Structure formats: structure tokens, C-alpha cells
Amino acid sequence: MRCLSCNTILSSFEATRKYIDSQEFVDLCNYCFKEIGDTLVVDERFDLMEEADEISDVDDYDEDC
Q1: Shortest CA distance to 14 belongs to which of 37, 63, 38?
Q2: What does the angle CA 22 – CA 56 – CA 24 come to, to the nearest 5 degrees?
Q3: Alpha carbons 55 and 30: distance in angstroms, whole number
Q4: Taking a C-beta distance cutoff of 8 angstroms, is the pair 15, 27 a contact?
């Protein structure tokens, strides 16, 4: 699965993020999701989160996006 915005391969954590209302997958990497994340209500699988998925690390994430 790839990010709909920047085409980066999604991690398991990113690939399982869903909108609460529709239960459709968001399909955005953490970097792209950060821009709109405050305006959406989503369901996230924190059990799949790895160190690379930390949202606070997204500021430095410009290698692939």
C-alpha cells in the first residue's frame, strides 16, 4: 500500500489507519497525515506502531515525501 499523496510505501501502522465514520482506510503516510490529522477523527492501531511511526519524528521526515 502506498500513500495517496506522496506515493511512499506505508508502514503497517499507517496502512491500517481508518476514518471513524466510514471505516475506510485513510491511506496517507504519517508525514502527509500530519497536515490534516488535527481535523479528522480516525481509528489507529497503536499495537502496530513502531519507533519509525512516532508522529513527533515526522518533522524530520522528508526523505521519501
Answers
A1: 37
A2: 10
A3: 7
A4: yes
What backbone torsions phi and psi does residue 25 show, to the nearest 5 degrees?
Answer: -70, 140
The model's pTM: 0.76
Secondary structure class of 2 (helix, strand, coil): strand
| DSSP per-residue letters across 36-63 | HGGG--EE--GGG--GGG-GGGGGG--S
Q: What is the pLDDT of residues 22-64, one digit of tens each?
A: 999 999 999 999 888 888 899 999 889 888 887 655 555 555 5
Query: How many residues does this entry show for the chain?
Result: 65
Q: How many helices (H) and strands (E) does the chain have?
A: 2, 2
Strand partners of residue 25 = 18
